[in-house]
Amino acid sequence: MATLNTTINDIAVPTAKLQDVHISESELPISPPSTKDLHTKLTTLLLPQLSEKASINLPSDDEFKQNTARWSDTTFTSPTAVVNVASESDICAVVRVPSLRPMQSQTNHPLSSQVKFATSHNIPFLAQSGSHGLSSSLQKLSGKPHIIINLRLMNEVKVDLPSGTATISAGAITKEVLDAAHAASAHIVTGVCNTVGIIPALLGGGMGNQISLYGLGVDQILSARLVTAKGEVVVVSEEANQDLFWGIRGAGHNFGIVSELKVKAYEQENGGVHWTGTLGFPGSKEMLTRVTSTIKEMGIGKGMGVFMIWARPPPAFGPMVVLNLWYSGPSAAAEAAYKPFFDLEPVMQICAPTPYTHINDCNDAVCAKGLRKPSYCVGLDESELGDLEKVWEQWVEWSAREGAGQSVVLTECYGFEKAREVEDESTAYAWRGTGVYVLTIPMYEKEEMDAEAHAYGTKFRDTLQGDGPKRVYTNFANGDEEPSALYGGGERLEKLRTLKGKWDPHGVFGWFNPIC
């Protein structure tokens, strides 16, 4: 039997999902249950039905803090309870209690009834895998009873290289996908952060180094099992529910719970050995200009990826421009491809052949949880890289402030040739023509700095954006942008909203960067 680790004071009943989702209280007729009612349901109805490995965490439990920790403390929502599910039967158990009325699923998938429970009881719920969702829109949950469903134990990744596919379960994170792919002598497109939940990352676009080899993450999706707002499980693919298949590839957080994703898998390159390098340059506007000019002149070719970081690393804590480089191939070829960077005479360099499982390790420090990290994103064309000079001094001044020294600026430069071979209208992802994403992240501990950090971040974003089109990578959005900046405007946004009306008319799924 599952365990309850403390005396229950404040509690809620769970529902499951991979992405962050929303239940609209104004649209649902039943009032949220009281804390006492939820307490009773958990202790008398749910707990006895959970498997041995499942557990429930309350705020007084030691595990509660660990299982509610987020990449940014600004997105912590003060949940009333966490249910750590260990199997799909655990998820089923949430709704298989006498007081509930489960809906019949089209495919008898267990998640269907779970969503029905949450919606019928008007309980807001937020499910998580990697807990990296950084949008301020999540703060709308704060101050109301809600549930966190921790799916991390449901992390299976099956790779079938002969068929060129991989099947990923709801709670898997990037590192687990890399490990499974490497063990099968395969490559699977992921992002560049080991601890991010892989399915929500792919649904939002799937940005990362390997897109120069295989294309965007959304273009890797072959099919999905998705729980709708009606509590029905539908298969979504080119053959089934084609309208929804278009929508989930770029805006999937808005339409339901993806319980399982089937994606493309490829034969590994170079025996699964890649090359990674970290080069550090003294931080100045002049050096930044040399670096950005080099990127533009060099170009980002097949099998290349450049991740630029402005940071103040120890021991001197002075400004530096750091390049984390990736190359899919042997060291000699990598060093030749990146020779223009070495010609700039970096003051620090760490370069080595790297197994596929460790290609993201150089970014682990940036991906670590903790601190307050509101984030501000701008999409640029490759030709606009030089505009970064406009915001260099803003970052230098902000990061020199007491308590803000860990603040960074990230610039992701990938090869988009493969991604642009796909028709722009074939998926809901809006920004195939955008080749660079810049993200400033003020990092600090004290909540009292929130207003100043927001002023810095919005000034940075507005300066870099200028009068040009507002383009934001959905997974990097601050949460204060117009939906058109994330999903495109005009007919594309109208098509998404029509889909929303069809598949989720009451806005059940809308805590994370909603389209409406």
UniProtKB/TrEMBL annotation:
Residues in the signal sequence: none
Protein name as it appears in the record: FAD-binding domain-containing protein
Species of the source: Hyaloscypha bicolor E
Gene3D superfamilies (UniProt xref): 3.30.465.10, 3.40.462.20
Family, similarity comment: Belongs to the oxygen-dependent FAD-linked oxidoreductase family.
Pfam assignment, any one: BBE
Keyword Iron: no
InterPro entries: BBE, FAD-bd_PCMH, FAD-bd_PCMH-like_sf, FAD-bd_PCMH_sub2, FAD-linked_Oxidoreductase, Oxid_FAD_bind_N
All residue ranges annotated as the FAD-binding PCMH-type domain in the record: 75-268
MF terms in GO: FAD binding; oxidoreductase activity
Keywords associated with the record: FAD, Flavoprotein, Oxidoreductase, Signal
